[in-house]
Amino acid sequence: MLLLAFGCPSPTAPLEDVSRAVIVVLDGARVDETVQETDASLEAPEILLPELTALVAAEGLLLTGALNTGVPVTTESHVELLSGHRQPLATFPPGTLGAWRSNTPTLFEALQGSRDLSSEQLTVLVNTVLIEEALSSRYPSASTHARPTYSMLAPGGVLMEDAALLDQVQLTLAQRDTHLLLTNLHQIDLIAHAGGDYPAAIAAVDDALVRLWDFIQSTPPYAGHTWLVVLSDHGRHRVDGWDNHGDQCNGCREIPLMVLGPELTPGLDDTPVTLSDLTVTLAGLLQTELPLAEGVPIQALLADDLPTGPRQLSASDGRQAWADDGIWLDGILRSDPAALHAEAPVLDGELLCWRELHITAALDGASPWRARCEHGTDRTPLGIDAGSAFWQPATDLDDRRRRWLLDTTNPDGVTGAAGVRPRLSVWDGAVLQTHLGPELSYPLHPALLLQGDAVLVAVGYSTDESSGRDSRALGVWVVQGDDWHPLGPLTASGAVRLEHPTLHDRHSPQLAALAWMDGGGVSVVTTRLDADGFEALDVVSTTSVYPHLPPMWTEQGVLVWAEHTARGTVAVCRDGACTDTGHVTVDSLTLDGEHVWVSALDHGVWMRHRAP
Predict the structure, then answer these.
(1) Dist CA 116 CA 406 (whole Å)
(2) 406 vs 435: CA distance, rounded Å
(3) pLDDT at residue 234, rounded to an integer
(4) How far is CA 362 from CA 38, 42, 90, 561, in A?
(5) Taking a C-beta distance cutoff of 8 angstroms, is the pair 311, 599 a contact?
(6) Residue 490, CA distances (Å) to 46, 487, 493, 564 in order
């Protein structure tokens, strides 16, 4: 039973006996200074948390293979930690619109729904403003759940010291019946960025962390029922100082992860695990569910299998590309079995594309995402490169049998604009030609439509970095050779963010996209292309649209995925008429001819279903 979707109390143990969790994020602390020494040539200091590491060695589990596999910055990392989904947009400096909230439910929402908790029983204590809007999602049913109590502690306008913040955590646990508490010790990251005494900032919290565990172990209702998780959201550079992070360097990816909890067998585990894996595992330890999370359970902490992300991700002409232990097509493993992640397959005729992540061994090296495309049964590689954690191309075949691809370059995987562009490529079976578009701020979700000798392309991108990238528009161009003629940017009245454009030639070129509306909610907007450009964007749906399910064009019109408000199930809508799919949890839409397929969770198993 999906407790989040129905918002019903758990029928299991009394609330005073249920599992609880306290999550302590050492913001930006490298694994080098916290749990393990590195190569002496890198001049790594000694371990700076000796009391905590000794405690974990005696009573807990040290996971030395923990990784941030997305973009390692604070807010994105917290969205993944709370939802089990990598987040594609950076968020600093902070905005006010919440446009970067997770599209899928958070751990706070799942736990509140399954236990019918008050906001006081779910708590966030921080000394940073960077994660406030990561605490709730835009998933429709999540609006019925209480947000956690949030406190940004800066007495007298001065940010509270990290050790004092941990003392406040202990005081809050003593005063409230807390089921899930998250705290971010941001002084560590702040001091490192400023070139201050970063090692001292880490060492300053050692004693307070041990005292927090002693309190948990000796105080009802926490004693014997509470998990303490200490980790970093991201690391930082290992060379040229520690003042920065955010790219795909190994020092940024590798993070400390220590766990203390009831009936835990002490030990050390070097299995690679991600933030999303931890999220799914915490959901299991707390007896709740996050079926849309991408992670897999950490076996050292939770032996029971849990529902994870959808397995069937792409289909074309009855052939299927699967992402489970890799990318499979026609019974053949196409991805590298050594890859940590192989995901997001795009299958169009004889072309298969996906992204992979390989973790390198070099301490001072990097582990970038790779773009992979191959064609035909001979698996001819197309030579596409410059992948990122969110790389996924759009593709089509013209009447000359040439393959067109639209993707977005991001060589370093960073969140800035420099060198990041939409890229249109054409492959004639032997040569790949590329045509780079203009530099944009973090372009995502490309779409293309062939129009004779020209190509219509669309992509979502950020228009105002100074506002925290919470303003997103649609860039639209007509491309002929190296000439990118702009038809946009497109904006919609009342919308603060436009994403996931899709294009279709239905009598004339048309576009649909998801629109995040000012004041909350997600809508779908459409427009038609005429001789002078695009008409004004029309809002075709205004309530309960799922932000993780983009609109989809068919010959009959645009499909919109919305919550059936009376039943809590997923409905598919066309031209204002909605049909209930009968499924509570749906993901991964694919189009096979004119048939739309979805992955739906049925009794804990992801199954492929044809949409009504």
Answers:
(1) 46
(2) 10
(3) 96
(4) 11, 11, 27, 44
(5) yes
(6) 53, 8, 10, 30
Q: What is the spatial distance between Cα 7 and Cα 473, in angstroms, rounded to a whole number? A: 34
Residue the block writes with tokens 């603060």: 496
For the chain, how are helix, strand and coil distributed in percent, rounded to 5? Answer: 20, 35, 45
* Domains of the chain with CATH codes: 20-285 (3.40.720.10), 310-392 (no CATH)
Q: Strands 267-269 and 61-63, how do they pair?
A: parallel
Structure confidence at residue 38 (pLDDT): 42
**Inter-residue contact 559 to 610 (CB < 8 Å):** no
Q: Which helix (H) or strand (E) holds 316?
A: strand 312-316
Pairwise CA distance, residues 524 & 531, whole Å? 24
Measured CA to CA, the distance from residue 259 to residue 227 in angstroms comes to 7
CB atoms within 10 A of CB 354: 30
Report, as ranges of residue numbers, the positions in the chain whose pLDDT lies below 70. Answer: 1-15, 36-46, 89-100, 304-313, 323-324, 414-419, 464-470, 530-532
The SS3 of residue 148 is coil
DSSP-assigned letters across all residues of 290-311: -TT------TTT--S----S-S
Return d(Cα 183, Cα 119) in angstroms, integer. Answer: 16
Pair of tokens at residue 195 = 């070139």
Tokens matching residue 396: 């089509």
d(CA 155, CA 297): 39
Least Cα distance to 127 among 99, 92, 153, 94 occurs for: 153
Write out the E strands in 467-604: 472-480, 483-486, 495-506, 508-517, 522-530, 533-534, 538-541, 552-554, 557-564, 569-574, 577-580, 586-592, 595-602
pTM across the whole model? 0.93
What tens digit of pLDDT does each residue of 502-519 get? Answer: 999 978 899 999 998 877
Residue 328 CB neighbours (<10 A): 17
| Count of beta carbons in the 10 Å neighbourhood of residue 206 | 20
Token output for 476: 């639209």
Pull the structure tokens for residue 336.
């590298």
Which among 518, 524, 435 is positioned nearest to 483, based on CA atoms? 435
